[in-house]
Amino acid sequence: MDNKDLKLAIEQIEVPKEKVLKAIESGLNKAGGIESSPVKKKTMVSTIAAAAVLGITFSSGFVNPTMNGVLAKTPLIGGIFQKFEDSMGVELSKQNLVTELNQSVTRNGLTVKLDSAYFDGEVVSITGRVEGDVDKGHNEKGEISFDMNFENHKGDNDPWLNGKSTEIRKAENGYMFLWKMVYPFKTFKENFTLPVTIHNINGIKGEWEFVIPVNQENLSRLTVNQEKSYAEEGIKIGIKDILVAKASSALIYETVFKNEDEVYLEKAIDDKGNVYHFGNSTILSKSKEDGFHEIVRSKMTKVHPDISSLTFYPSLHIADPKAVQILDRKTFTLNSKRTSLSLRINDAWVEGDNLVLDYQFHGFPNELSKDKLDLIKNNLAYEFMLVDKDYVDTIDPENPVPPESHIISRNKVTVLNEKTSHYQSVFKLNGEQRIDHFKMENTVLQFDFSSFIENKKIAPFSVKIPRQNK
Amino acid sequence: MDSKEHQKLVKKAAKGSNKAFEQLIKRHYEQIYRTAYLYVQNEEDALDVVQEAAYQAYRSIHSLKQPEYFMTWLTRIVIRCSTSVIKNKKNVVPLTEDILSNLEAPAEYSKEESVQLLKAIGGLKETYRTAIILFYYYDYPIKTISDVMEIPEGTVKTYLSRGKAALKKFYNGEEQNYG
């Protein structure tokens, strides 16, 4: 037996790919459900829900002989979408709404060919192939990564990259890929050209440059303009328009908050009982007068014709500002501003290269499930932050990478007594994260209660839907 | 994988990008599943572990402050979920014919040998098993294993050598039986 044997043996464990990917999706779905969640979850939950729905639509296509018959008749391009399990592409290619491309660029032994493009609702998709010795790049075999930009954007600062996904399939001389982008602009153009530049593929340098024609016909708009106020929660949700495309729809809605909370539309059900899920969101406008206003466009399942109403199921994530205390004392209480949760710090001391906190969590229901207790313990390891007091203001909440040598964001949690929610956290002062010249009295302890607050389901509301033009 | 692109994805995921997180975790699906399988030793439980790990990872990704630690952080979650499944079940299902029939051996490598090795890994003490998996399957350096397991580097080395010794013993013993 040598080391290689072990690895080889492990790699022979057969992986049921579809089931594993489905398990991942269910895990993500579950996270978007009743439990509390990270702050920016809005887009995430709904996309995953939508992905799951697409998955179901797709797989049923294969047991349904009629659908298979239809697929058999679709042109080559439809077959590509079938390989990617992209039901939207399959549907559009049946309606001849996919633009066939025939563009090819070769650089450094790699040829990129673009085959097709479609634009439906707010989804823009491009398929193509990479041919050549792509596996000589520094990725693992079977993986492709594109470093790319659209239009003249650079790096991360490219609105087309927000929510872009890439699917890869092995092909004869390389790989096939399908990119899906969320149309990032407020107003729709029916026809436009989209410049695409691939800078490198698996680290192999390019540049591969293309200009893609993108077309969408007859995107229709249903004007709804109805709103619902929740006095107790201090929020208002206004459903403005629904854009109906050929294979998908998009919902435009406005939220108004007193606080910086977030609302998620979990699903909608029409008067015929059809269920709709929401996908990627684009924030169309944001303002702050008389509360926080946000207008969002969200991908949704295609709206059925002839429906007369839609009932939305929203849930609310409460934003709780970070609780803060300078460590110039050993005993104090950190309070959540908007819930009854609090942390009583019983003691704080330095022991060798460690800072130790002894504390109790207050405000949870009496009976907590094992699962919940595990999650609390897990989250406690991430939600404390020790910050050099001179650097507190330099942390950009949008960019979670902390200033080096002035912050410690991880700790090791020990449960002292589960029944009394009594815990101990140990922060390594000289680990990979550190605070130079550490002194307790110069250090701020921050605690974020947000991930301990459960999402609150709020009452569903219905709006009337105008009749669609045929 | 392009580590720069990987880090970009992690940063985006930590900032709340849904797609980035889904892409990230799906990129590692084989490793996640196999790791889970090594602990729980059957498909059903391994899939449960994958689901739970995805769930927990998603819930705490926003607090991952250093993108370069994504993989070790995720691995820790997978191991924690695996061991909690084992603990909840208590009766661990041993490697059976089920895995035997699932194995697809490459020509140069015998199926029998792989099964013996996996069986042996399954029979190891949990701490040895984790060290062995991280060292041989993940190719992690001792330092990283010590971070993931939250034990000193010296202890990692001890676990590795004891684990390897136990594997050899088991493996050789079995080999004789199969003579």
From TrEMBL, chain B:
Residues 24-87 form the RNA polymerase sigma-70 region domain. Residues 115-167 form the RNA polymerase sigma factor 70 region 4 type domain. GO terms for biological process: DNA-templated transcription initiation. Keywords: Sigma factor, Transcription, Transcription regulation. GO terms for molecular function: DNA binding; sigma factor activity. This is RNA polymerase. Belongs to the sigma-70 factor family. ECF subfamily. It comes from Peribacillus deserti. InterPro entries: RNA_pol_sigma-70-like (IPR039425), RNA_pol_sigma-70_dom (IPR014284), RNA_pol_sigma-V (IPR014300), RNA_pol_sigma70_r2 (IPR007627), RNA_pol_sigma70_r4_t2 (IPR013249), RNA_pol_sigma_r2 (IPR013325), RNA_pol_sigma_r3/r4-like (IPR013324), WH-like_DNA-bd_sf (IPR036388). It holds the Pfam family Sigma70_r2.
